[in-house]
Structures are given as structure tokens and as C-alpha cells.
Design brief:
- 30% of the residues lie in helices and 29% in strands.
- It is built from 4 helices and 7 strands; from the N terminus they run ααβββββββαα.
- It has helices at residues 23-26, 29-44, 136-149, 167-189; strands at 49-51, 61-66, 78-90, 95-102, 105-115, 117-123, 129-135.
- The longest helix has 23 residues, at 167-189.
- The two termini are 31 Å apart.
């Protein structure tokens, strides 16, 4: 496996809409190696997720996983999930404020309003159908990664730019309050 470079804000690829992947492409050894590299790169960077477009491959693929992540110790666990051609559909109008960061926007956090419940349809890395519901903080993580595939960065969704801060200042001034938000959201939605 290979750890790949992560595109940073300003790289034109981050503003492209990613292209659909065919079942024929999924079946190739090249695609499977790319998915392995995507996952390895995400792990190396301590990301909760990573979209293919973030590593300069504008295809509709992303990986999500939250375990014992030092960047997000308060996030609920998400088993390794690879989404190919994902579609997210809100299940209600309920939203919550999520303090987000991004590997492509280093050392920056900001509050983004996210849907609290989403239906996810996609293929897994082998072309098997995924059809599931995600809720709460987990739903926010899925929305963040799928946004990348539509050329959207979290900072595009920050309504109040006064919430923007560095990771250090987030830890110093915002993290305790945000952990309380996470606890409420997890208590309401279970994830």
C-alpha cells in the first residue's frame, strides 16, 4: 500500500465534481489497490474519513472509519466503510451544529449545520449494495465526506465565520462545550 498526498484547500481538484465509478472499474486490481491506498492514507493522517478527490483522484469514492482516533476522541465509533457512488437523503429536517475539521483544510475548525438522520445508498468496494440509515454525529461524518465528492468543503457550509478557529484554539476554548453537544446528539440518536 502507498500513502498518497492529500490535496489542500486551493488545489483545483477539490472544486471538481467527482465522476461516477462503473462496476467494471470496481472489478479491476487497480481500483482495489487505489481503495487500499485511500484507506492507508486516511489512517496515516488520523482522518475520520477521506474522499478519493482529496488524493487527486476525482471519482465518487470515500472511506470512513472512526475508532480510537486522536483527532476525534469524542466521536462515536464507525466501522471501516467504503462508499462508491454514494447518495445521501435526509430522513427528517432535524439538524445539529457540528464542529468540523478537514485533512484538506489543515489546522482549521468551524461549525456546520448537518442533517441528523440520513439514508445512505451506495456500493461497497466490491460493488455490493449498501442501503442503511445513519444518525447523529455519524450522519455528520458521512455528509462531510460525500460533500467532497460534490466539490464542497466544510468551510463552504460554515454560516457563522466567527466559529472558525485553529485546532489549538478549539481545544482551548470550544472542545468542552462541543463534547457536551456530542453527548446530547449521541444520547438522542445513539451515534
Amino acid at each position: 500500500m502507498t500513502i498518497l498526498a492529500i490535496a489542500q484547500i486551493g488545489a483545483p481538484v477539490l472544486r471538481e465534481r467527482a465522476l461516477e465509478v462503473t462496476r467494471e472499474e470496481i472489478a479491476t486490481p487497480e481500483f482495489q489497490k487505489f481503495v487500499d491506498d485511500l484507506i492507508e492514507t486516511m489512517h496515516d493522517a488520523n482522518g475520520a474519513g477521506l474522499a478519493a478527490i482529496q488524493i487527486y483522484n476525482p471519482i465518487r469514492v470515500c472511506a470512513i472509519e472512526v475508532g480510537n482516533n486522536p483527532r476525534y476522541p469524542y466521536k462515536p465509533k464507525i466501522p471501516l466503510t467504503v462508499l462508491v457512488n454514494p447518495v445521501l437523503t435526509p430522513l427528517s429536517n432535524e439538524r445539529f451544529d457540528n464542529y468540523e475539521g478537514c485533512l484538506s483544510v489543515p489546522d482549521m475548525r468551524g461549525v456546520v449545520s448537518r442533517y441528523a438522520e440520513m439514508r445512505v445508498t451506495a456500493w461497497d468496494r466490491h460493488g455490493n449494495a449498501i442501503d442503511r440509515e445513519v444518525r447523529g454525529i455519524t450522519a455528520g461524518t458521512f455528509q462531510h465526506e460525500v460533500d467532497h465528492l460534490d466539490a464542497t468543503l466544510f468551510i463552504d457550509r460554515v454560516a457563522d465565520t466567527r466559529t472558525l478557529c485553529t485546532w489549538k484554539e478549539f481545544a482551548r476554548h470550544q472542545e468542552a462545550a462541543f463534547r457536551a453537544v456530542v453527548e446530547r446528539v449521541v444520547g438522542r440518536f445513539g451515534s
